[in-house]
Structure formats: structure tokens, C-alpha cells
Design a protein that fits this description.
- This protein is an alpha+beta fold.
- The protein has two domains: 1-58, no CATH class; 60-96.
- It contains five helices and three strands.
- It has a three-stranded antiparallel β-sheet with strand order 1-3-2.
- It is globular.
């Protein structure tokens, strides 16, 4: 029997946590307390099963959330899909 398993992965540079997360790396690790967190020393990956839990770590202004939701509704896709595509498009622009 097939089972659909979905999760949200948040990947961030390790030095950004020290720079932007109040309390730095040690507080981040204590706050996450998630066995799915992994790092290679340069990047950190944390998994979430519920999108609301991500909001605690990715702080978008409310107007950004509303704009993302409006675009997602227009396209008929989840908010996460809009974010992934926009980020990928921007990164592709930066590569050229």
C-alpha cells in the first residue's frame, strides 16, 4: 500500500545562523531539538512536518505571506511551490 510522506526542508548557511539567529548556533540547536537536523559545517538542514512550524524560523513580514498566498491561489498551488519556484528563478538569474 503506498503512503504519501511529505515534509518541508529548510536549508540555511551555518554562518547565517550565527549572524542572524538571536543567540547564535547554541541557542538555535537548543530551540530546534529536532533529530532531523543535520549539518556539514557549512549548511544546516531542518525538517518540518507542518508548515506553521516553519514560520517560527523563517520570519516573513505578513504582507509577504499574504502576497505569496494570493499568488498560490491564483496558480492553484501551495504557497511552498511559489516560494520554491521564485527562489529557483532568482538564483538562476544570479548565476548569469
Amino acid at each position: 500500500m503506498p503512503v504519501l510522506c511529505e515534509a518541508i526542508s529548510v536549508v540555511v548557511r551555518r554562518d547565517s545562523i550565527d549572524k542572524y539567529f538571536q543567540g547564535g548556533w547554541n541557542k538555535f540547536v537548543r530551540k530546534i531539538s529536532d533529530p532531523t537536523m543535520c549539518t556539514d559545517g557549512e549548511l544546516v538542514r531542518v525538517g518540518f512536518m507542518v508548515s506553521n512550524h516553519v514560520q517560527e524560523f523563517i520570519d516573513f513580514p505578513l504582507w509577504v505571506i499574504h502576497s505569496l498566498d494570493k499568488e498560490a491561489k491564483r496558480l492553484g498551488v501551495p504557497r511552498q511551490s511559489v516560494v520554491k519556484v521564485w527562489i529557483a528563478e532568482r538564483l538562476e538569474e544570479l548565476r548569469h
